[in-house]
Amino acid sequence: MAGELSMSPVMQDALVILGAAGIVIPVFARFRITPIIGFILIGVLVGPFGLGTLVREIPWLQYITISDPERLQPFADFGIILLLFAIGLELSFNRLWQLRRLVFGLGSLELLIIGSISAAFFGYYSGMETTSALALGFALAFSSTAIVLPISGTKSPVGRAALSMLLFEDIMIVPIIFILGALAPNADGEGWTALTDTLWQGGLVILLLLVIGRFALPRLFSQAARTKSPELFLAASLLVVIGASLATAATGLSPIVGALIAGLLIAETEYHTEVESIMQPFKGLALGIFLITIGMSINILTIIGDWTNIALAVVGVLSFKAIVTGSLLKMMGARRSTAAETGVLMASPSETTLIVLAAATSALVIDSETAQFWQIVTAIGLTITPLLAKLGRSIARRVEPTPELPEEDEHEARTIIVGGGRVGRLVADMLQAHDQAYIILDSDPDIIDRAKRGGYRATFGDAARGDALNNLGIENAPALVLTMDEPVLAQRLVSKLRGEHSELLIVARARDTDHAASLYRAGASHAVPENLESSLQLSEAVLVDIGVAMGPVIASIHEKRDEFREKLERDGGLTEKPKLRTSSAAADG
Fold first, then answer.
1. Three-state DSSP class for residue 510
2. Which residue ranges traverse the bilayer (predicted)?
């Protein structure tokens, strides 16, 4: 009838996904649970094995379910491409070169040992043909780039180890799939030729991308930046990542190789921060779509019908991979805690496992029933990866306990440092060097754990809540130091604390002179602009090392501080000239 609302299946799927994102992200964030689990559970619920089975009996369910997961696959693949692009943005060619030993040493050993031992197990105990056992063994050896790296990051020891192994696995996807095709029962002998062609053509394309990108990308983003248009900047970013992915895919290589190279090239330009921030929402949504498709592949009824074998398979794969990966890391000199945490985190199979299983099935290397069983095992492993991350951190604390610190009097007057990052730990070092009591407060449990392992006095808590500071005895604290790089929160805390404790010495880290003026107006005793102090220290080092006498250099440094004091007073509308040092004596010395 006229005016009746009709909706295409693609539009229905898009609304379901956007609705899922709108529910999962805030709800799971509220309970401090990673949304990864939420997206997978949503996939189970709205997929063809969940509420989708009831569409015939309850027709209106078609509007909140997804009956054909394959329609979402292109979006899920795009999510993986954006993830590798974002990883490239966080890296650089120099950093990647520094990781070469881990990538080609640890990464190759991990994949080879897990794959070959697994293949030997399946061939001996399950009676599989050699080709089938190799396909299954190496498929299960892969770990999830899409889930592991958002959890581990790339800068911690665990993140660097995981990144190295995952990079090598991503490089090896194409050769493994080609080899499976060449070894297939119906292979025509052209598989090895195709692999050779792909490798030399892909190498040539990668070389061209590196050369062209070095010269073209800075000019492209410079023009986009001059327009002051976020839309054009976004369009340029998508053009680069999609173009590079299509270029590598055209030669037979994985498109994620092109995405990673595009990210690495942009990381070498001064525009990488802007590109990273503008692409973040798209990466998160696309990754959510990928996780939903993983959930859709889980058939609860099949799991219930064969739960014993599936449970044994999941536990066996996770345990074996964790032991091998952890042992390799320990042999290569990693700390016990890092080896244990990384091993458990990397234990589950991967989205790549599903790709290899599909390729092996189409090549008649693995029968469909066996492939379906291990697809379910893989989906379960992906679902519980966030739980494995928590288990890994717990095991790491046990195998390498935090050092025991001498007991202290909780009522002792001590400086409270809010923020346990690099700056906060440096402040703690200086206080300890002068025998001054302190306590670090942070709301990130991982930061607190690292601080304790480093021998610092630290405790978990949210400074924005009054009881956290009260429990640490703020009424007796000689000073409160705010070191976190969160300008708005720092300003609110200063204003709140000045109203509650009028005599408290509050020293705050400021991002720049404008932020310092805001902190002074809020009631800070001292605000230290990090860009000012670093500039003055650089100037002092240069002048002294080129032969200028120390006395005149220090005098000029003080003069420059005075200029900034006057500027803060003038621009910030302050009633008196602020201090930029923690004591007038230090400033005069």
1. strand
2. 12-29, 36-55, 75-93, 102-125, 131-151, 163-184, 199-220, 232-250, 285-304, 310-332
**What does the pLDDT look like over 56-72, one tens digit per residue?**
888 888 778 877 777 77
Residue by residue, what is the 3-state secondary structure of 257-306? HHHHHHHHHHHCCCCHHHHHHHHHHHHHHHHHHHHHHHHHCCCHHHHHHC
Q: Count CA within 13 A, CB hemisphere, residue 500.
A: 14
User: For residues 137 and 132, what is the distance between their CA atoms, to the nearest angstrom?
Assistant: 8
Residue 468 to residue 472: CA distance in whole angstroms: 7
Integer Cα distance of 192 and 179 in angstroms:
7
pLDDT in tens, 402-420: 555 444 545 568 899 998 8
Kindly report the backbone phi and psi dihedral angles of residue 442, in degrees, each rounded to the nearest multiple of 5, phi listed first.
-150, 150
Strands, sheet with 506-510, edge to edge from the N-terminal-most edge strand: 458-460, 438-442, 415-418, 480-482, 506-510, 526-529
In whole angstroms, give the CA distance from residue 34 to residue 410. 34
CB-count exposure of residue 330 (10 Å: 0-12, 13-18, 19+): middle
pLDDT at 3: 47
> Looking at residue 2, what is its pLDDT?
46
C-alpha distances (whole Å) from 60 to each of 10, 48, 54, 68, 138 are 16, 15, 10, 16, 43
Which residue in this structure is represented by tokens 């950093």?
A: 95
Calpha distance 368→362 (Å, rounded): 9
CA distances from 437 to 406, 408, 427, 582 (A): 12, 9, 12, 17
- What are the b/e assignments for 415-453, b being 16+ CB within 10 Å? bbbbbbbebbbebbeebeeeeeebbbbbbeeebbbbbbb
Count of beta carbons in the 10 Å neighbourhood of residue 551:
8
Q: Is 507 helix (H, G, I), strand (E, B) or coil?
A: strand
Q: What percent of the chain has pLDDT over 90?
A: 10
Residue pointed to by tokens 């599909």 = 358
pLDDT at 583 over 60: no
CA angle 296, 298, 301 (to 5 degrees): 125
Among residues 526, 505, 502, the alpha carbon closest in space to that of 516 is found at 526
What pLDDT does residue 578 have?
55
**What DSSP character marks residue 579?**
P
- The answer to whether 580 touches 537, Cβ cutoff 8 Å, is no
Q: What are the tokens at 85?
A: 């692009």
